[in-house]
């Protein structure tokens, strides 16, 4: 290890969304492998830092403050730390402005939102879907000599596994567990119909599984409705776990069925057989990373449109039927 590498102080501004943050894992691992002695600080939403901390790819997490005054104080503290480089993963103007305020000597990100004047290295962004998003992030790290390495399963701490067992232990006694996630924060054009999720849950229960319906607290009503419609053998856990506990819970499941959402990325990352249902977006751009991920997508000619809602009837989603998804679950758990 050269003295130059040992001296590096690297700030990484992580994405704000769970799925995007998990697609940054190849970059985090590549950077750690290239610069094992560098001091790496990750900046991002506190729940994402809590989830990723178990991997030890960064030395310190800096939770992204909620208000402007706290952000100013954090920028001053980071300026005193004197970062040699900032890797700016979000495409926003504000994330580049913060890296500048934090005094990073090199500010590496994609040219977007007229922010290039604040970057020292403004990379040209490929057309959406041409490269997987994880590779777009890796290209930023390549500026610091990081090269792709084998991606391990997402590490989950023992106490999270204990908490997950305590949450579902009795409900799942003697049965396999399937996790389904019927919502997507992006909007309806990424959501397979809730009644089809309920029908799938009934098929999974008939096959001998307990079904856990997962989502955020804001998605609790939909998750409860799907669990109620599925009947005995299904229950909602929406909003009842931290991200590490949800990761442990999904890791213990036989199979997960998700929209193109953060939970699909989480299930893929922990190595659980994961069936992902695609609507308006591009699987080439955002497929969940993991050894056992299967995509179901029947794109009409209008796909991908990347819209949040659809004016012509969500054909991309209604083309996916329950029997096909149930069959994919069976095939992945044989
Ligand atoms: S326009 Fe086409 S791809 Fe987009 S949501 Fe509607 S059916 Fe799906």
UniProtKB/TrEMBL annotation:
Domain of life: Bacteria
Record keywords: Glycosyltransferase, Transferase
Reaction catalysed by this enzyme: an L-alpha-D-Hep-(1->5)-[alpha-Kdo-(2->4)]-alpha-Kdo-(2->6)-lipid A + ADP-L-glycero-beta-D-manno-heptose = an L-alpha-D-Hep-(1->3)-L-alpha-D-Hep-(1->5)-[alpha-Kdo-(2->4)]-alpha-Kdo-(2->6)-lipid A + ADP + H(+)
InterPro entries (alphabetical): Glyco_trans_9 (IPR002201), LPS_LOS_Heptosyltrfase (IPR051199), RfaF (IPR011910)
EC number: 2.4.99.24
Keyword check for Glycosyltransferase: yes
Biological process terms in GO annotation: lipopolysaccharide core region biosynthetic process
CC per GO annotation: cytosol
CDD domains reported for this sequence: GT9_LPS_heptosyltransferase
Gene Ontology terms, MF aspect: ADP-heptose-lipopolysaccharide heptosyltransferase activity
SUPFAM superfamilies: UDP-Glycosyltransferase/glycogen phosphorylase
Enzyme class: transferase
Family: Belongs to the glycosyltransferase 9 family.
Protein's name in the database: lipopolysaccharide heptosyltransferase II
UniProt source species: Eiseniibacteriota bacterium
């Amino acid at each position: 290890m050269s003295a130059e590498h040992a001296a590096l102080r690297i700030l990484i501004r992580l994405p704000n969304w769970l799925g995007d943050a998990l697609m940054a894992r190849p970059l985090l691992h590549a950077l750690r492998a290239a610069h094992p002695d560098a001091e790496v600080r990750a900046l991002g939403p506190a729940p994402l830092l809590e989830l990723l901390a178990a991997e030890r790819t960064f030395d310190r997490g800096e939770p992204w403050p909620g208000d402007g005054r706290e952000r100013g104080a954090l920028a001053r503290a980071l300026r005193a730390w004197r970062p040699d480089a900032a890797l700016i993963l979000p495409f926003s103007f504000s994330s580049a402005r913060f890296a500048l305020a934090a005094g990073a000597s090199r500010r590496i990100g994609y040219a977007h939102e007229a922010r290039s004047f604040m970057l020292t290295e403004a990379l040209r962004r490929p057309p959406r879907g041409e490269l997987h998003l994880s590779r777009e992030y890796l290209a930023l790290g390549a500026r610091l000599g990081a090269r792709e390495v084998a991606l391990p399963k997402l590490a989950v701490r023992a106490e999270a596994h204990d908490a997950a067992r305590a949450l579902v232990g009795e409900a799942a006694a003697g049965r396999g567990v399937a996790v389904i996630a019927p919502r997507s924060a992006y909007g309806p054009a990424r959501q397979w119909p809730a009644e089809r999720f309920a029908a799938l849950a009934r098929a999974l229960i008939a096959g001998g599984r307990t079904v856990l319906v997962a989502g955020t607290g804001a998605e609790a009503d939909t998750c409860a409705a799907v669990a109620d419609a599925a009947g005995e053998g299904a229950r909602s856990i929406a909003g009842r776990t931290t991200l590490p506990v949800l990761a442990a819970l999904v890791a213990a499941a036989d199979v997960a069925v998700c929209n193109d959402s953060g939970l699909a990325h989480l299930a893929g990352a922990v190595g659980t057989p994961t069936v992902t249902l695609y609507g308006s977006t591009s699987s080439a751009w955002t497929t969940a990373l993991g050894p056992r991920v299967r995509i179901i997508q029947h794109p009409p000619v209008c796909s991908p449109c990347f819209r949040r809602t659809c004016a012509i009837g969500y054909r991309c989603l209604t083309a996916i039927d329950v029997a096909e998804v149930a069959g994919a679950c069976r095939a992945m758990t044989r």
